[in-house]
């Protein structure tokens, strides 16, 4: 269902040579923070589209996507070349199951993202829902290089608004960077470094974990957490871990 809508780029943000955000106005239906939309271009007579999570909260405009450039890919290099005023296509249906409304009750919310998978978590954190449901929120963002840490201003606003209830943990794995962890997320959990860093234990009794990003991180984190009694959350079998794979 739904239809393609031709929209105009309102703004492009170039975070570095491989990371971009595009903002555009589109008459999308009401959606839940954490959901995604299909974005496309007509290339050689064919519409090529990919799903991208919305970074903006449901009540924010313009809409925004955050993506990495895949040099050999058919779409992302062309999206990266767009400028304000250029046209692109957005599908009118917004979907996705990684939303706060689907999570069971919890005291502590742990959000783990790699790369551009940070986007849907920012959409969630700009809404009231996570803060109404959890006493404490930990956002952990893992990247290869320090220049891949995007949306710093948005994160600082969240820290200013929520104070000690919000912990942001940047992880930079391929270079030394002050103020960041260097172990990958699964290793930092396994060693206890991440929990020591924020002063909070990740326990099945009071935590819900949301994993978004590459499949290697998602699978490895689940292997670390399973012995602690945390299991995948499913509609018919409530659990502690919600997952969305980006690739």
UniProtKB/TrEMBL annotation:
Its cofactor is FAD. CDD domains: FNR1. GO terms for molecular function: ferredoxin-NADP+ reductase activity. It catalyses: 2 reduced [2Fe-2S]-[ferredoxin] + NADP(+) + H(+) = 2 oxidized [2Fe-2S]-[ferredoxin] + NADPH. Belongs to the ferredoxin--NADP reductase type 1 family. Gene3D superfamilies: Nucleotide-binding domain of ferredoxin-NADP reductase (FNR) module, Translation factors. InterPro entries: Cbr1-like_FAD-bd_dom, FAD-bd_FR_type, FNR_bac, FNR_nucleotide-bd, FNR_type-1, OxRdtase_FAD/NAD-bd, Riboflavin_synthase-like_b-brl. This is ferredoxin--NADP(+) reductase. Keywords: FAD, Flavoprotein, NADP, Nucleotide-binding, Oxidoreductase. Transmembrane segments: none annotated. Pfam families: FAD_binding_6, NAD_binding_1. Its EC number is 1.18.1.2. Residues 2-101 form the FAD-binding FR-type domain. The keyword Hydrolase does not apply. It comes from Guyparkeria halophila.
